[in-house]
Amino acid sequence: MGVRRQVATVLIAALVSACSSPTPSSSSATGVAAAVADAANDLTDHYGSPVAGSETVDVLEVGGRATATHFEFWVTVAADIPPVSGSAEHHGYSFEIDLDGEVPGEYFLGTWSDSGAPFRASGAHGNDPISVEATTEGRVALVRVARDAIGNPDRVFVSARTERIFSPDGPGDPLTYEEAFDVAPDTEWLQVIR
Ligand SMILES: [Ca+2]
Ligand SMILES: [Ca+2]
Question: Is residue 22 a part of any domain in this protein?
């Protein structure tokens, strides 16, 4: 039996200020948008213990918007996202999308950069890939997916997760290995309604 998901925020577009909203990637961004703030400096390692630094993955806001044809999800982080991660560094910005209000979500979307490569977008529904687009610019990572690709819902619940892993001497070296994760919203998932 799943856990009933509570709704964090249902907002109208006016609550997403012009300074914090990403530039829409199409002219169809006329739908309802929602956004919620996330605390600064709340990164953890995979044990849940606080870690400092890694501002490039410290989420300050998570948002979503439904347009006539697409959903767009984004995070705004505390420092500019590098366009390419070094060979020892990995960045990830991902979104779990839930349609029925019970965990876990049905879709996983995101963009990742590692091994000195540019960011690549990826989406999945279970084991099946789905097509998504992604951009990282300044402090915003945005993922865009066609409504039809996720069953054309009128509402979705979204939870964002970011990660930075730095292992210049390999993951087995505890002296230089760094990892940082953030989840946003921290408690109740964000709801985005068409
Ligand atoms: Ca944060
Ligand atoms: Ca958080």
Answer: no
